[in-house]
Amino acid sequence: MRKTLITATLVTALIAIHAPAQAHQPVVLLNSDTTAASGPLLVDGTISFAVRAGFTKAGEKKAFRAGFKAGDTVAVQLLILDKKPENKLKNSQIPSVTITSPSGKSTTLKITERTKFFEPYSATNYLYLSRYTAPAEAGTYNFVITGKSKAAVTVAVGDREVQGEVLRGPAPTVAPTPTASATPAGYTMEQVKANNTKAKCWSVINDSVYDLTNWISSHPGGAGAITSMCGTDGTSMYINQHKGQSQPASRLAGYLLGPLAK
Questions:
Q1: Which fold has domain 189-259?
Q2: Phi–psi pair at 132, nearest 5 degrees
C-alpha cells in the first residue's frame, strides 16, 4: 500500500512539472477595443493571461497590448473551445491574430494544429490552434484579432502563474533597468560570478552570457534547475537537460546578454 502511494505521488509530481499552464488570468475584449491603442494593456506580457475575443461577422477587429522587457520571451497560443460550433469551424472561418513588435515587425499566427487541452482551473476543454515564441524586444507589442465569421477565440499570452496587472489608456513609460556593461570583448566571468542570486542570476552557456533571472519563476522543471546555474558556467547542466530541444533553446535565446570575454 505504501509503495503504491509513493508511486502515485511521484506520477502526480511529474504531471505537475510537465503539464501545460493551468490558470490564465481572463481578459475579455470589449466591442470598443477595435485598435491596440484603445484596447487593454497587459503590463507584464510574461504573466499568464487568457484574452477572449468574440465576433459576430467577418471584418470586425478587436485588439490589445502587452509590455515586455529585453530578455523576456513572447509566448502566445491561439485556442478555441472544444465544443460546437467553435470546434467545427474551418480554419478559414477562425479569426486571425497579428502580433506587431515595438520595432514594427509583424507576425500573423498560422493555424498548424488542433490539439486537445483541458484547462483544469476553469474546467474547460480547448483546442490549441497555433503556438508562437520569440525573444522579446523592449516595449509594447500590439495584438490585433480580425474576425472572419461568427466565432470566438482565446489568445493566451505569457506563462508565469502570478497575478498580473491590466490597464486601459496610454501605456506607462517604463525606465530601463541598468545592467553591467560588457567589455569590448564581451562580459567577463567575474561579472557572471557577481550575479549569483535569485535576484540577479547570470550564467554562461556555450561561451555566451545569459541573464536567467526571469526564467527562475517560470521554468517548467522548477526554480532549482535555474538557480543552480547562477554565477557559473552552466553549459554542462543545460546540455544534459535540454540538448537538441528547440523550445528551451528558443526561450534561452531571449535571455542573451552577449559573448563571454576570452
A1: Flavocytochrome B2; Chain A, domain 1 (3.10.120)
A2: -140, 135
- Specify the pTM: 0.59
Domain extent listing, the chain: 19-167, 189-259
The closest alpha carbon to 29, from 74, 66, 82, belongs to 66
Taking CA 53 as the corner, what is the angle to CA 68 and CA 89, rounded to the nearest 5 degrees? Answer: 120
Three-state SS string over 160-210 comes to ECCCCCEECCCCCCCCCCCCCCCECCEECHHHHHHCECCCCEEEEECCEEE
pLDDT digits 0-9 by tens, 39-86: 999 999 999 999 999 999 999 999 999 999 988 999 999 999 999 888
Q: CATH says 19-167 is which class?
A: mainly beta
At 6, which helix (H) or strand (E)?
Answer: helix 2-18
